[in-house]
Amino acid sequence: MEQVLSRREASDAVSDQGWRYLLGALRTSVPVGSLVQATEVAARAVTVCGADADRHLRVDLRPDRVILTLQALDLSASTARDVDLAGRISAAMRDVGLRTEPEIGTGTRSVQFVEIGIDALDIAAVRPFWKAVLGYTGEAGADGPEDAIVDPVGQGPAIWFQQMDEPRPQRNRVHFDICVPHDEASRRIEAALAAGGRLVSSSRAPAFWVLADVEGNEACVTTWQGRDGS
């Protein structure tokens, strides 16, 4: 069994290499000038990972960037192997004059993950519907009747279910969670407030801040920090 890292261990191990820890995974972006160059970056990352590529690496190619994600897919967690692969990939990018970076404070959005939270009185009753209608599956090692569900090909946001004790018809029951790098959160919140949003609650910060638009629809900006004593 690979060594699963704590949130802080994973974050501290890769931050100075331009990677960020997000929701159990390590993620970075490599700026490129064309889709041809993007494919070359992807090929180099796969080569560096070797036999570990299929179990750990996911690649999203765009004409201006390549998004690289490392996670032990059968564990849905970050491991020491992922940290090692991140370092090797970053070194390989430097060798060809490229860089791995989280795109923080660049004017574009940083690397991130998006989740959708659904309020439910009976999670076990509603979960099968969302699993079926979206074509989703349970996460590796976490496919219980109240666990989150995920896109098996990694394109759509994860869906998790928030237990409600009583109906709240005057409150939206679906909200977005935007997991950003811990050092991006304040900038993202400031941008949302400047765009007309309001801060609903910061009582659980830095794990998450609850924001709302002018009509009261809520979204949370989240980080790995402040969870489980981290």
UniProtKB/TrEMBL annotation:
Classification via SUPFAM superfamilies: Glyoxalase/Bleomycin resistance protein/Dihydroxybiphenyl dioxygenase
Matches recorded under Pfam families: Glyoxalase_6
Family matches, as Gene3D superfamilies: 2,3-Dihydroxybiphenyl 1,2-Dioxygenase, domain 1
Domain Glyoxalase-like: 116-222
Alphabetized InterPro entries for the sequence: Glyas_Bleomycin-R_OHBP_Dase, Glyoxalase_6
Range of residues in the leader sequence: none
PANTHER family on file: CONSERVED PROTEIN, HYPOTHETICAL FUSION PROTEIN
Protein name: VOC family protein
